[in-house]
Amino acid sequence: MSETATLIDLDAGIRPQGMGEPEKPSLIGLGRERLQATLADAGVPEKQARMRASQIWHWLYVRGVTDFSQMTNMSKALREDLANRFALTRPDIVEEQVSVDGTRKWLLRFPARGAGRPVDIETVYIPEEGRGTLCVSSQVGCTLTCTFCHTGTQRMVRNLTSEEILAQILLARERLGDFPDAHTPQGAIVPKDGRLISNIVMMGMGEPLYNFDNVKEALLIASDGDGLSLSKRRITLSTSGHVPNIYRTGDEIGVMLAISMHAVRDDLRNELVPINRKWPIAELLDACRAYPGLSNAKRITFEYVMLKGINDSLAEARELVRLLKGIPAKINLIPFNPWPGSGHECSDWEQIETFADVVNRAGYASPIRTPRGRDIFAACGQLKSASQRMKKRDRDSADASAA
Ligand code: SAH
Ligand code: SF4
Q1: Is residue 318 part of a domain?
Q2: 242 in a domain, yes or no?
Q3: Domain boundary among 85, 117, 146
Q4: Does residue 209 sit within a domain?
Q5: What is the rounded distance in angstroms from the CA atom of residue 129 to the CA atom of residue 94?
Q6: Which segments of the chain have a pLDDT < 70?
Q7: Are residues 362 and 385 in the same domain?
């Protein structure tokens, strides 16, 4: 491992070209039925559409191919016809950085949609002992304004499409060499063990439950057993507390749930996590209690960012434990990751440990989350901060030269 963060030298081929609207629609991110219907609309005979959809599904999600010509179990004529109508392109990689701790961050650019401009988002890969987690973004910016979160200071630009959410997983697997060789005989299956990306967390930029339909479609594709095959037990969706859509997540998606709790009283949570004004703590916890399938083996994660002098007293630790009584829960204490101008400080380490002791004594194990990738601004709540600053610097120098 090198001692400084590395900026990967990208090939000319994946440098951003400056993208307008995508030329052709993509087949990535369409659920099975939509894929089948799209093929039928494109002239694939009705009787064949189901089989063709399964074949394409396999190539896209098991093999990770990006070119119709590689889909060797379909006729050349069909492959050419599909290539003329549809695209399978990956987003452009604007920047790829590797932290000293092995965390990897991609700044990705997606084409403009409608009247908008191309958008940039970040995806982070966190390797750990025995597993690797991909932190995926759901929106460009966020409509919410949690005081400690850098994404909350950014203008909400738009929701990501299901294609763009999935594309983050496909691109990361490709860059990490995590797809089986595209040239192995047909019938390759996703290996059960040894995959670099074993877990997905919807904890990147944005509030996933304000983009419910696209997140749902992407996660159902990611967990499909004949495709990417990521078990729903290994996919965690984090929400700041959109109560009606927590019920829908349980009923319609069935992945693991994480709640950005951060405060134990409504008056403080109203400040820190403003969505609380709409859905206060009692309603949020009712939705958690009703989450389907909870057990000791399937718990809700409660995230709690440690803010010095704000939410880190021992009385608050005890209240947290009291509030969560009866809910199969894990508590994740997150040391606050600072960013310029946040106005918050991270709690002292000693305070975090005593807070953790109270939580531990109540039966919750190893709850402090080690910050990862701080040197490349990849830690929770820091996404886009470095690139934003870079843009500001560019803007400043442009302003200076215009003056
Ligand atoms: N919008 C969703 C998911 C993205 S944020 C949500 O709020 O749950 C992922 C996690 O990082 C959340 O728990 C969020 O509160 C936390 N977080 C945000 N900014 C942070 C910061 N500066 N330091 C530590 N954690 C932060
Ligand atoms: Fe949005 Fe989550 Fe950040 Fe709050 S913590 S501003 S909901 S991304």
Answers
A1: yes
A2: yes
A3: 85
A4: yes
A5: 29
A6: 1-3, 9-21, 181-193, 366, 381, 383-403
A7: yes
Same domain, 173 and 243: yes
| Contact predicate 55/71, CB 8 Å | yes
What is d(CA 381, CA 120) in angstroms, rounded to the nearest whole number? 16
Distance between Cα 89 and ligand 2 center (Å):
29
Task: Provide the pLDDT for residue 76.
Answer: 96
At 337-396, the pLDDT tens digits run: 988 889 999 999 999 999 999 999 999 876 788 888 878 887 776 766 544 544 444 434
Q: Which atom of ligand 2 is nearest to the CA of 260?
A: 5
Ligand 1 neighbourhood includes 240 CB (under 6 angstroms): yes
Q: For residues 78 and 122, state if they share a domain.
A: no
Domain that holds residue 152: 99-402
398: DSSP letter: H
Our answer to whether residue 21 is catalytic in this structure is no
Mean pLDDT (the chain) is 88
Give the pLDDT of residue 1.
40
Residue 107 CA to residue 99 CA, distance in Å, equals: 14
329 and 182 in a common domain: yes
The closest-lying atom of ligand 1 relative to the alpha carbon of residue 260 is 13
Give the number of the atom of ligand 1 that is nearest the alpha carbon of residue 337. 23
Residue 324 CA, ligand 1 centroid: distance in Å? 20
The number of folded domains in the chain is 2
**For residue 353, is it within any domain?**
yes
Question: Which residue lies with its CA nearest to atom 24 of ligand 1?
Answer: 336
Residue of 122, 164, 207, 303 with catalytic role: 122
Whether residues 115 and 228 fall in one domain: yes
DSSP structural state of residue 368: B
> Residue 209: CB within 6 Å of ligand 2?
no
Three-class SS of 86-140: CECCCCEEEEEEECCCCCEEEEEEECCCCCCCCEEEEEEEEEECCEEEEECCCEE
Q: Are residues 66 and 105 in the same domain?
A: no
Share of the chain above pLDDT 90, in %: 73
